[in-house]
Design brief:
This protein is an alpha+beta fold. The protein has 10 helices and 5 strands. The chain folds into 2 domains: 146 residues, no CATH class; 197 residues, Histidine kinase-like ATPase, C-terminal domain (Heat Shock Protein 90, 2-Layer Sandwich). Helix 1 runs antiparallel to helix 4. The longest helix has 82 residues. This is histidine kinase.
């Protein structure tokens, strides 16, 4: 992976790639860097003032006189270099490491650099710097001994300050890692939620398209039936020709509308909040479906034995409508002229039974109207999803029979 592809971030945790160009400081970064710079500069002023005051009670032990100017210069350079700590924290720590042998005024700046490395770079690098500072405290004490403090006490103070810096840095490091982890988890959860919504949208569109396919196949079969009647009866009375032409025109118009809806569903843009129009037939629409087939010349007999038709659940009623629609479409395709019997029976608790039967055509099924061959597959899927059963084929009397049972729970 190219390191330049890593997003700029002012705080790079261990394991992150360093970006090819320096990240820009945010206003908060400028404020923090400014405060740390002023704090380190204040320590330079205090330590240098103590060094030149030579107060026997309060002055720091400065060693040889030539160290006063060298120490001041080292402190100022280390403090000014703090502005580079975000981009090159390890390099800055290595460059200022020799100052730990003798400098008092650079102490605050050196602790800030160690803190930065501990927070933003691999932990082993930061701990190595801490160990270096602990080891160099021995030469420091030898060069600048404190008569009022024994060696072990000076070492204890050094270890204490380094321990405070390490503990604070590890706390900040852990908190930043936790925040980044929670942010990443939230982003993943949001992406997964969006993916689930997209999948649900695609599944819904596919379901609507399948329903519209059933409707469209029904319309096209009506068109074919009427067109065939006009083809075989060219001498029909003008009234019958006009009526058939009117049915063809109305069916073609409706088929075009259905086709537009299917195309609109399949071409719907991602993220669109508009709900596509869809057919929502119920069991109460079966008589209109039968009347439409009768107008097309199909002889249909209906036996309705449903005890509470008004109480049929919408989903069950819609499935029953689609089963009847598929049965009538198949009868028109494969057994033209045959009498089709539609039987509906059942009630709450017993389930809803749907049966469409027609005599087997003489000479085998007709294939004048082409089909996709997936109508019964779609009906089987619909019945299975509803928790019902489906059967189809020739019965003992030789008739073709399409039967389905759909669960109908008793309403509480």
């Amino acid at each position: 992976m190219n390191s330049a592809a890593v997003p700029d971030h002012p705080w790079l945790l261990p394991g992150s790639l360093v970006p090819a160009r320096a990240p820009r400081r945010t206003p908060r970064d400028w404020f923090v860097d400014g405060m740390l710079f002023l704090l380190a500069l204040l320590w330079v002023a205090v330590a240098h003032d103590d060094a030149i005051s030579r107060d026997p009670e309060f002055a720091l032990n400065i060693g040889p006189d030539w160290l006063i100017g060298a120490d001041l210069l080292a402190g100022l350079l280390a403090t000014g270099a703090l502005w580079l700590r975000r981009r090159w924290p390890v390099g800055l720590a290595v460059a200022t490491a020799p100052l730990t042998f003798f400098s008092v005024t650079a102490g605050a700046a050196l602790l800030i650099v160690i803190f930065t490395v501990l927070v933003h770079r691999p932990l082993r690098v930061g701990l190595a710097l801490v160990a270096w500072n602990a080891v160099t405290s021995l030469p420091y004490i030898a060069i600048r001994p404190d008569p009022a403090m024994p060696l072990w006490a000076a070492m204890a103070w050094t270890v204490l300050f380094l321990g405070i810096v390490v503990a604070w840095a590890l706390f900040v490091r852990a908190r930043r890692q936790l925040v980044l982890s929670l942010r990443d988890r939230a982003e993943r959860a949001e992406a997964e939620q969006q993916l689930r919504l997209d999948q649900a949208r695609h599944l819904e569109r596919g379901r609507i398209a399948r329903e519209m396919h059933d409707v469209l196949a029904h319309r096209i079969s009506l068109l074919s039936l009427h067109a065939g009647a006009l083809e075989f009866r060219p001498d029909a009375p003008p009234e019958e020709v006009a009526r058939a032409a009117g049915v063809i025109r109305a069916s073609a118009h409706t088929a075009l509308q259905d086709l537009r809806e299917v195309i609109g569903v399949l071409r719907a843009e991602e993220g669109s909040e508009a709900t596509p129009e869809r057919p929502q037939p119920t069991l109460g629409d079966v008589p209109a479906l039968v009347a439409e087939s009768r107008e097309a010349g199909v002889r249909v007999s209906v036996v309705d034995e449903v005890t509470e038709p008004a109480g049929v659940p919408a989903a069950i009623g819609r499935s029953a409508y689609r089963i009847v629609q598929e049965g009538l479409t198949n009868a028109r395709k494969h057994a033209p002229g045959a009498v089709v019997t539609v039987r509906l029976a059942g009630g709450p608790g017993d389930g809803l039974a749907v049966e469409i039967s027609n005599p087997w055509p003489v000479g085998g099924p007709a294939t004048a109207i082409p089909g996709t061959g997936t109508g019964l597959v779609g009906v089987a899927e619909r019945v299975s999803l509803a928790g019902g059963r489906l059967g189809h084929g020739r019965d003992a009397d030789g008739d073709f029979r399409l039967t389905a049972w759909l669960p109908w729970a008793v309403s509480s």
